[in-house]
């Protein structure tokens, strides 16, 4: 690296470097994606291109064109190019366009991933239940169910993120007890809707929106309740222990996860769903026809049992949890008075 021995030489060297850089920029070709001439440094960032890894390939998406390249089992490259979908109408409105972009990205990413698996020869052999679904609903069953699940997951994720963002607004207008009560009612109603509309997608989406929106509120309220318990413990026992208080939540999450897996396993056994999965073709349809109670056992286990646990938790909250805004303010006032009294005694 050249280092000038005086300031004038350094300025001359910098000017020479700048001229060489500008000359290099001027010689750059037009962008193959948007066909715009790159004129200056800021224009280098005109084209925004993203993508994702695929099975034996890659997908890239630009403002005008999108492409997917996948290696076939014989070593050849399968290349697909298509026009990038444009945002129009209300889909261009800020905040709203983010939601549509998120859903479109999930759908397109899932489709490209499935296509790459098929082209590269890495697609798994369908199991017996998938073969039965293809026989009943057609060969497009997998794509249809995959797209529906992707869209549903995206909608529920957006609902939960929206709830987290608007929680401060609700917090200003309602007390914690009111928010918790309303959230628990929304969760209970959502579970009831799930139970009554097990196969109708619109009602399932509505129930999912209510459930995920309310659960986001409950998660934030639980953090507030645990934070209040820290001061309550110090006020009651005379010793502050934040670690013990905040360790309760991960313990409950781990215990709940283990309990849910146990319930799922037990349900699959007593309902006979494992027999359906292990059956093939017409036998699967026959088993489903012979065991209509299997679906009801699944619905009771996955919807009614959680609803009962939620109601028990709500009753315990109403009966046992006494830390509201007024009580918490009094606790803080007493703790401050104790601290000042302690300082006075030391003097």
**Overall 3D shape:** extended
Number of H/I helices: 12
> How large is the share of residues in beta strands?
5-15%
> On the 0-100 scale, what is the average pLDDT?
75
CATH C-level class of the largest domain is: Mainly Alpha
Helix percent band = 55-70%
- How many distinct beta strands? 4
CATH-level-2 architecture of the largest domain: Up-down Bundle
Number of domains: 3
Helix/strand class: alpha+beta
- Give the strand order, joined by hyphens, for the main sheet: 1-2-3-4
Largest pleated sheet = 4 strands, antiparallel
Q: Give the terminus-to-terminus CA distance.
A: 66 Å
Low-confidence segments, ≥5 residues, pLDDT <50?
A: 40-44
Radius of gyration: 30 Å
The topology string of helices and strands comes to HEEEEHHHHHHHHHHH
Describe the structure.
The protein is of the alpha+beta class and 347 residues long. The protein folds into 3 domains: 18-46, no CATH class; 48-124, Nuclear Transport Factor 2, Chain: A; 130-346, Growth Hormone, Chain: A (Up-down Bundle). Helix content is 69%, strand content 7%. The chain contains 12 helices and 4 strands. It has helices at residues 7-26, 96-120, 128-137, 141-173, 176-196, 201-237, 242-246, 248-271, 273-278, 282-290, 293-320, 325-346; strands spanning 50-54, 57-61, 65-71, 77-83. It has a 4-stranded antiparallel beta sheet with strand order 1-2-3-4. Helix 5 packs antiparallel against helix 11. The longest helix has 37 residues, at 201-237. It is extended, with a radius of gyration of 30 Å. 10% of the residues are buried. Mean pLDDT is 75; it is low at 40-44.
